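Collaborator request log, item 7. Partner lab (contact: R.S.) asked for a structural prediction of DUF2975 domain-containing protein to inform their binding assays.
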Amino acid sequence: MKLPEKIIISVLSTLIFSLSLAFLEYTPVTEQQTGVAYFSFKVLVIIYVIFSLPVYLIGGGLYSYFVDVYFDKVQFRNKFLKYLIEFLVYAAGGLLIVGVLLAIILLVDGSVAGILISKFFIVGALASLLFYHISLISKKALKFVQDKL
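Returned to partner:
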């Protein structure tokens, strides 16, 4: 898959990821307490897009590009085995990218004391798997469109 396609997949993944996190974090107006500041759903989405888009573009897009280059050279007899191996490679990539980000935070800030590291790794793995599955869907959609033309 070409780099422009990876950019489109990164943007789609960012939107779905940001909408999902905003949905999980949003407190409905009926449940909000007086005197406590809350973000609107739209603001939460914008915040998550601002922080996740660079990670998806730089970390996810480049990692995925190199994974695809490698797996294009490998032939699998079983499609499920290929899916399982790519699934694990993408999950490991999410863990790797989060590890690099935490190392950068440690170098800049000097501490990662207030960060729930295990949740960071879970979110990183889920984000990379979202990217992987969107790329699978886009490959199928592109193949379907090319077959129809």
